[in-house]
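The passage that follows is intended for readers who have already worked through the single-chain material. We present the inputs for a multi-component assembly, then the predicted structure in tokenized form, and finally a short commentary. You are encouraged to pause after the input and sketch how you expect the pieces to fit together before reading on.
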Amino acid sequence: MKLILLGPPGAGKGTQAKLLEDKYGCTQLSTGDMLRAAVAAGTDVGKQAEAVMARGDLVPDDVVVGIISDRIDEPDCAAGFILDGFPRNVTQAEALDVMLADKGLALDAVVELAVDDAILVSRIEKRAAETEGGPRADDNVEALRQRLQVYHAQTAPLIDYYGEKGVLRSVDGMAEIDTVSGQIAAALDSGAK
Ligand code: AMP
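Having made your guess, compare it with the prediction:
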């Protein structure tokens, strides 16, 4: 199974990606996790990304496209992968199309976790309050609001991008975790390979 999980910060993409890993035996590829690991390790990519991430903006497209391309080639992705947090804009989506075609791969589906903005803001504020001073430098209200703004401006257009390609499945991301995972499974069974 080769999937994209699409949705704003706080929509539960990471949680659902983990459940999908268990169900389908494919690998979660979270660009956010990979970038945080690069920051922690102090690599060149990490140094380039740190300040950008802390304020909630996007790191350069070529950086994340390169990371994902290398990662998809690793053996644990042979059984499939779940892209969590990538692509984040149309440029990255177009680069992904080219990359997958070059590798002889195709997406099975793009699953959108649809979340109401007002609910998201309260979830985000709760998460920020719970994690302030914690492991994520971007879990403060200001950065999270910026990430939400970036989502609307740059990532939400991917809903139309994949909708036009006929691969988009939308589920209600505001339901309980188990309900959402059930809806994702139903959406995949109904249309995806
Ligand atoms: P996430 O964990 O997916 O919320 O990502 C945390 C941060 O990492 C984002 O706010 C961006 O600064 C950066 N990031 C993650 N994925 C991407 C991506 N595909 N393109 C650009 N920046 C990204």
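Commentary: Residues 29 and 83 are 5 Å apart (CA to CA). The chain has a mean pLDDT of 92. How closely did your sketch match?
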